[in-house]
């Protein structure tokens, strides 16, 4: 085109145009002929209907070269009838296909298909790329029109969906064994076909087929970190199926509900109670073992005291005894339950090691990763971060092998916390920053929030630094005590990969008496809530002078900015992020205290009690109570302070009021004003409250 030049402004459109037209010289020439009437950006934008757009060429060219339609039609006319049939049927594939798929979907006999396919390859209508075949988009668009004209399009879509449903179902058990990577790669090759099969099944009203595909692909999606895509497809399928599951497809429907719920970072409600309680209706292990994990992720932990939840956990584990994979997953959950119940953390070690052995014997990299992460976290809880290095590194390598961006991000979050614990501030900042980047790309807003919270904690640590000497928790911890809030270094809470497994230790494999399963069986600590108070720098500097200088004010401003960003990123009403939200609120309360705004601090601490996060939120609730008690003493109400400290016992958060430094500080100050006897009486009144009364006390302003 005379006068046309490539510029920075049109280069992207030119690249897009050439790519869309498969680089075919004549197609590009026909597009160039339109430049006299349309800008190149407009031509590139209109190529979805390429045959209509590129319908006129040079007047001196042969008739068959005057339009793109004519060029492809001329090639089509040279095909034999069997070649035309295969060419039009081949367009049912999205992103190409392997030979087996071409034979099974497109033809009546393998020998005939191979011969005809070879002819199409020789005539350049189909290309061979290794062991797969593909069709140029321009050719495919023409042949797809011929498929629509043949009146067999609906049947071909149905046959295509049936083939890929069979593939997904066959792959599923291999995803939990030694051939995990090979089958992940195989599903990756046909991801476009699998997703197209779901969409077409919904469009054709074949809800059972679409639901079975969603159920069979649920673990694959999780392993590959395809949370957003999975949620979109599951939601589409549920809308196509309607409010009631098709007969015989209840489990598949529930898997769709949970998959849709977990991928929507903007949702503000958990699955409906009917589906949240589904697991307790089972009388046998589910047909899809991943449902154990997914239900826990989507529904969250039940209400109840730690002892009752642990007993429920033991009963559920007995019901999955026949399945080695579920048994190994149950061991990870049991390990986390021990750690969060207030029992001796050392009892968790055998559970994690047993799970590690089980998953390694099965060849499941994902489960092995969870077990290694649990052992790494246990080492940190012991105050031995060096012992966490090797299992964390191995877990990260496994996550990378699996190609799960979300798991890599979360393990890096755990490593960042370990680096912060050991004084590697630069390393921690780099890891938290990388976590935020990966989480954004993977559509994991709860991890974005966790990473921003970590960066905020690093800033706050410059104002409230850790003591020069400290000792880690080595003795049995009180029930869900406020770890990391006192003079000891912040005790790590579990990574989401680990805590997620905890929630699914036995998350619903057998029937549950209604009285024992208030919230279904997904009772283990919520995902990404696992940060607990791990990100909070040790207390004790709030009333000091660290924040008075310019450097302190800058650090507080930086911490405040990161925490506000974290709160904005954190999904609301999503139980798996509620623990992170609670921790952000406590951090904001601490920042307000350091800034001298006690009213704002009190409001933030009270807000913690408006969030539901299950057992793993106990740490943060206990911290919030301790800090409210400290503010009550400062406000001249030591009696309220003592009752708030006692409320921690009423809520089952801990065994006593002085399990953390904020608690000890508040108790000492209140006791000094009230005297030992009156302090003990007020403390007992708080401990004697019902849980609802204890929450009401925590929410009441003063």
Kindly report how far apart the N and C termini lie. 78 Å
CATH topology label of the largest domain: Serine Threonine Protein Phosphatase 5, Tetratricopeptide repeat
The major sheet is characterized as:
3 strands, antiparallel
What count of helical segments does DSSP give?
A: 34
Number of distinct beta strands: 4
Q: Helicity level, as a percent range?
A: 55-70%
C-alpha geometry = elongated
Low-pLDDT stretches are 57-66, 466-547
Count of separate structural domains: 3
Side-by-side strand order of the widest sheet: 1-3-2
Name of the CATH class of the largest domain: Mainly Alpha
Structural class: mainly alpha
CATH H level of the largest domain: which superfamily? Tetratricopeptide repeat domain
Instruction: State which percent range the strand residues make up.
Output: under 5%
Task: Give the overall pLDDT as a whole number.
Answer: 81
Rounded Rg: 30 Å
Explained architecture:
This protein is an all-alpha fold and 702 residues long. It folds into three domains: 11-76, no CATH class; 152-264; 306-699, Tetratricopeptide repeat domain (Serine Threonine Protein Phosphatase 5, Tetratricopeptide repeat, Alpha Horseshoe). The protein contains 34 helices and four strands. The chain has helices spanning 11-20, 25-32, 40-45, 50-53, 68-77, 81-90, 99-106, 110-122, 137-150, 153-171, 180-189, 191-203, 207-223, 227-241, 250-263, 273-276, 290-299, 306-318, 324-341, 348-362, 365-381, 389-402, 405-421, 425-442, 445-461, 496-503, 550-569, 575-594, 598-607, 618-634, 638-650, 661-674, 676-687, 691-699; strands at 97-98, 127-129, 132-134, 518-521. A three-stranded antiparallel sheet has the order 1-3-2. A hairpin with a 2-residue loop joins strand 2 (127-129) and strand 3 (132-134). The longest helix has 20 residues, at 550-569. The chain is elongated and about 100 Å long. Residues 57-66 and 466-547 have low confidence and may be disordered.
């Amino acid at each position: 085109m005379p006068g046309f030049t490539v510029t920075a402004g049109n280069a992207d459109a030119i690249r897009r145009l050439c790519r869309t037209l498969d680089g075919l010289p004549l197609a590009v020439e026909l597009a160039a002929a339109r430049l006299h009437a349309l800008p190149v950006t407009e031509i590139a934008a209109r190529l979805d209907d390429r045959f209509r757009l590129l319908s006129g060429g040079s007047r001196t060219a042969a008739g068959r070269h005057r339009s793109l339609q004519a060029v492809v039609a001329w090639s089509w006319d040279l095909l034999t009838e069997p070649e035309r049939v295969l060419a039009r049927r081949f367009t049912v594939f999205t992103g190409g296909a392997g030979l087996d798929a071409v034979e099974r979907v497109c033809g009546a006999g393998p020998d005939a298909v191979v011969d005809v396919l070879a002819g199409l390859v020789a005539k350049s209508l189909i290309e061979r790329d290794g062991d797969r075949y593909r069709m140029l988009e321009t050719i495919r668009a023409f042949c797809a029109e011929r498929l629509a004209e043949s009146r067999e399009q609906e049947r071909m879509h149905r046959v295509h969906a049936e083939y890929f449903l069979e593939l997904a179902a066959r792959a599923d058990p291999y995803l939990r064994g030694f051939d995990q990577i090979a089958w992940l790669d195989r599903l990756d090759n046909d991801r476009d076909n699998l997703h197209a099969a779901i969409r077409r099944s919904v469009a054709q009203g074949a809800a059972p087929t679409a639901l079975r595909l969603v159920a069979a692909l649920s673990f694959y999606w999780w392993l590959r970190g395809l949370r957003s895509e999975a949620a979109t497809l599951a939601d589409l399928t549920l809308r196509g199926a309607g409010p009631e599951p098709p007969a015989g497809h209840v489990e598949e429907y529930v898997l769709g509900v949970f998959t849709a719920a977990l991928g929507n970072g903007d949702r503000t409600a958990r699955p409906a109670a009917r589906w949240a309680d589904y697991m307790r209706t089972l009388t046998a292990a589910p047909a899809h073992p991943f449902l154990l994990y997914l239900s826990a992720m989507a529904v969250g932990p039940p209400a109840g005291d730690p002892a009752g939840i642990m007993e429920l956990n033991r009963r559920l584990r007995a019901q999955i005894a026949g399945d080695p994979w579920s048994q190994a997953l149950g061991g990870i959950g049991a390990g986390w339950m021990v750690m969060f119940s207030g029992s001796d953390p050392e009892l968790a070690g055998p559970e994690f090691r047993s799970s590690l052995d089980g998953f390694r014997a099965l060849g499941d990299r994902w489960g092995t990763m969870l077990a290694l992460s649990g052992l790494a976290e246990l080492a940190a809880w012991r105050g031995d971060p060096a012992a966490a290095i090797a299992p964390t590194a191995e877990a990260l390598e496994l996550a990378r092998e699996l190609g799960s961006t979300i798991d890599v991000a979360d393990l890096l979050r755990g490593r960042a916390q370990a680096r912060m614990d050991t004084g590697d501030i630069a390393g921690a900042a780099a890891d938290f920053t990388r976590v935020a980047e990966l989480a954004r790309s993977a559509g994991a807003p709860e991890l974005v929030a966790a990473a921003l919270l970590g960066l905020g904690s690093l800033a706050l640590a410059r104002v409230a630094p850790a003591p020069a000497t400290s000792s880690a928790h080595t003795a049995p911890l009180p029930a869900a005590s406020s770890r990391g809030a006192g003079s000891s270094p912040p005790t790590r809470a579990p990574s989401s990969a680990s805590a997620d497994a905890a929630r699914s230790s036995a998350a619903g494999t057998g029937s549950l008496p209604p009285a024992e399963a208030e919230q279904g069986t997904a009772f283990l600590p919520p995902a990404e809530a696992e940060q607990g108070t791990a990100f909070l720098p040790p207390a004790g500097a709030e009333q000091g002078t660290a924040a008075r200088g310019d450097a302190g004010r800058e650090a507080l401003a930086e911490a405040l900015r990161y925490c506000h960003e974290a709160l904005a990123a954190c999904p609301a009403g999503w139980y798996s992020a509620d623990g992170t939200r609670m921790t952000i609120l406590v951090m904001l309360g601490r920042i307000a205290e350091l800034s001298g705004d006690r009213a704002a601090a009190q409001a933030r601490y009270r807000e913690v009690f408006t969030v539901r996060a299950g057992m793993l939120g106990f740490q943060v609730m206990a911290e919030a109570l301790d800090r409210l008690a400290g503010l009550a003493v400062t406000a001249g109400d030591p009696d309220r302070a003592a009752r708030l400290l006692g409320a921690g016992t009423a809520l089952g958060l801990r065994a006593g009021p002085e399990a953390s430094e904020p608690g000890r500080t508040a108790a000492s100050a209140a006791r000094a004003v009230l005297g030992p006897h009156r302090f003990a009486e007020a403390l007992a009144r708080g401990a004697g409250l019902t849980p609802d009364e204890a929450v009401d006390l925590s929410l009441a302003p003063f």
